[in-house]
Amino acid sequence: MRIAHFCDSHAGRPDGVSRSAALTVALLREAGHTVDFYQPGPFWSFRPAPGLVRSLPVPGRQVRLASPWPRCRPADLVHAHTTGPLGMAGFRLAARWRVPLIVTWHTDLLAYADIYPEVPIGAAWCAAQLRLRWSLREHLELAQPGAERQRRLAALGQGMFARAAAAIAPSAKTAAGFAVFGPGPEICVLPTPVDSPRTSVVHTPAPLEPRVPTSEPDRTVGVSDALPDAMRIPHSRAHDAATRAERPGTANGIAQSRSHDGDNRPQRPSTAGPIVPSGPHDADNRRGRPMTAAHNAQNESHDAGDRSERPTYADGIAQTGSDGAVRGSGRPSRAGGVILSVGRVTAEKNPELLLRAFALLLTEKPEARLVLLGVRLGRARLLRCLGALGLSRSVDVVPPVPHADVAAFFSAADVLAFCSTSDTQSLVLAEAEAHGLPAVVADPGLADRPGGGPPRFTCEAGPHELAAALRRMLDDSSLRTRVVHNGLQATAAYPRSVYLERLVDLYRRHLS
């Protein structure tokens, strides 16, 4: 069986679509299937690697626009992961080859349409590719925010799914959303798997060990050599002062060097310390507690003993004064809890909800700390929001890191905060669960876990509701143990082999 996969999200892009598509292709190839994988590649490559389609970067976005006319070998089945130029090429070629078309609905385009102008523009192009023969009035509806645009996008989705043999929904929430497209093809709920804790290697950072002070301005002081590169956030006192002078509204610890904007490494400067536990006790304690109670059970009494024994963060990256003494940065201690958010801070991810909820949490937990990992686009607006809410000294902003390094952040945090209400599945939730990190999800639609079992701990998408949920997760040890236990069980119950078996079964049903 030869299968052709089409994906507009290029390799290395920090999103779940590219990772899900790449994993699917790798599993199929390992199982002995012949798979052609078409995705954006460099434009100037003299001989691009097989499957890479010449593309151009979109200014100001982490997106590459590929040629809609790739050279493809005929296949027995086409699987489209996106609806951009390459995805629509899959639609077109499946009709030309007269083979089944499978579509995975990774992105809720209806939710993104009012945020990204390229969505309605691309929708008009897709309608032309599908030969839907819309009138000028119908095309103009795409330019009208609100109900008219949503209605026209629903009509486009109906036209797409009319050409598909089956649609894959990464979650039950996404499957329910297909109702807006009317009668369509078979719908298969098939989440993307992640490594279970039995097979994944989790790196737990070592405790902080002070180093000998140095007068070199960019030398990282007070950080253990055993830390992964993702945790090394160098501090420059001179650059920090200059940045504060240039941006009076940006508080200490948030301003970042512009020279690293295009880099995938952590940027400087930051007065925040590395995100590390004081020792292996913290990571082990989070993973090893037995958990049996149901999701909604509540324990109002806080385990004061557990809180008092929780190890505290070291002072962070130390600064070397003129007298040679090593002074801490004055960052919050571990006692307040470390909240981690992973992903973009663009509007569809709802970062303002998280910041407002964290501001409420700080009134009760002034030593709490928020780590925003994966920030690149929208950083200037984020910094303004942090300054307006008075959060700059309690929030660390970290640019994207290699995916392998994210595990160290999971190991060092106390809770994952997930605030997007537009995600179709969010791989970061399952990955956090696989690493034993409890999550608070501000989207009840994502309560179902890929491996089944009790639902995730969710709350309504409001600042007060999210702040209360985060406070419970930090203070209620019995709740934490239940959530961690349920997450580990769910990821272990949904290995890659189950995903592959169900996917191949779907393929064969439509090939017969």
From TrEMBL:
<dbReference type="InterPro" id="IPR028098">
    <property type="entry name" value="Glyco_trans_4-like_N"/>
</dbReference>
<keyword id="KW-0808">Transferase</keyword>
<dbReference type="InterPro" id="IPR001296">
    <property type="entry name" value="Glyco_trans_1"/>
</dbReference>
<feature type="domain" description="Glycosyl transferase family 1">
    <location>
        <begin position="338"/>
        <end position="487"/>
    </location>
</feature>
<dbReference type="Pfam" id="PF13439">
    <property type="entry name" value="Glyco_transf_4"/>
</dbReference>
<dbReference type="InterPro" id="IPR050194">
    <property type="entry name" value="Glycosyltransferase_grp1"/>
</dbReference>
<feature type="domain" description="Glycosyltransferase subfamily 4-like N-terminal">
    <location>
        <begin position="15"/>
        <end position="195"/>
    </location>
</feature>
<feature type="compositionally biased region" description="Basic and acidic residues">
    <location>
        <begin position="237"/>
        <end position="247"/>
    </location>
</feature>
<dbReference type="Pfam" id="PF00534">
    <property type="entry name" value="Glycos_transf_1"/>
</dbReference>
<feature type="region of interest" description="Disordered">
    <location>
        <begin position="196"/>
        <end position="333"/>
    </location>
</feature>
<protein>
    <submittedName>
        <fullName>Glycosyltransferase</fullName>
    </submittedName>
</protein>
<keyword id="KW-0328">Glycosyltransferase</keyword>
<feature type="compositionally biased region" description="Basic and acidic residues">
    <location>
        <begin position="300"/>
        <end position="312"/>
    </location>
</feature>
